[in-house]
Amino acid sequence: MSGISIIGTGNMARAIGARALAGGNTVEVMGRDRDKAAALAEALGGGATTGEWGAAPTGDIVIVALLHDGVVPAVARYGDALAGKVVVDISNPFNAAFDGLVHRGETSVAQEVAKAAPAGTAVVKAFNTVFRHVLENGSPDVFVAGDDARAKAAVAAFVESLGMRPLDVGGLRMAHWLEGAGVITVGLANHGVGNADFALGVTALSARGDG
């Protein structure tokens, strides 16, 4: 199992932390407000600990569970403390209408994180197409993008420990398209599906003979 550090104290941090502990992983919670981080760690139970904001995370996998505009600044703040870690960006940079992305061009929050992170840090995009409610209660497919094969393998093993299926979509440049898929999930929730009790996934056709 994995050592997980979560930067953030919101709903997604709580959901991932709870599933991580249930899957046998260790969890450290880190937040700007140490009292909130400590309260979340206590609520999670299972031996979850509280780390200092900006200090070196204890986990090999560091999940940045912040709103999109806080992700890159947080990574820059941690700086060399993240060297050698696998940093997972789960954010969705939605525009105000939730029908597009705030950034222009073929980039992503994860790609910008890779620019801000110190040498030796592997950045992975994951979890952004899964609604919190589904993350808490379901077993969805989790799409994973990144340039470092070992980092993606580590994240995939973590996803499997949560009882979910990891699906590799390619290099980190695919994070841009995963963020677009996040927009699609919101569109489906508001229109075609009508609720948030679902996740995007892959259905494979079973092997069939010619006869």
Can you tell me about this structure?
It is a single chain. The chain is an alpha/beta fold and 211 residues long. The chain contains seven helices and eight strands. The chain has helices spanning 11-22, 34-44, 68-78, 109-116, 132-137, 149-161, 175-190; strands at residues 3-7, 26-30, 49-51, 61-64, 86-89, 122-126, 141-146, 165-170. The chain has an eight-stranded mixed sheet, sandwiched between helices. Strand 1 (3-7), helix 1 (11-22) and strand 2 (26-30) form a beta-alpha-beta unit.
List the helices and strands and how they pair.
Elements lengths: L2 E5 L3 H12 L3 E5 L3 H11 L4 E3 L9 E4 L3 H11 L7 E4 L19 H8 L5 E5 L5 H6 L3 E6 L2 H13 L3 E6 L4 H16 L21
Parallel strand pairs: 1-2, 1-4, 2-3, 4-5, 5-6, 7-8
Antiparallel strand pairs: 6-7
Number of helices: 7
> Order of helices and strands, N to C?
EHEHEEHEHEHEHEH
Percent of residues in beta strands? 15-25%
The separation of the N and C termini measures 45 Å
Shape verdict: globular
- Average pLDDT, all residues: 96
Oligomer: single chain
Q: Report the strand count.
A: 8
What profile does the largest beta sheet have?
Answer: 8 strands, mixed
Rg calc: 17 Å
Percentage of helical residues? Answer: 25-40%
- Please give the order of strands in the largest beta sheet: 3-2-1-4-5-6-7-8
Low-confidence stretches: none
Structural class: alpha/beta
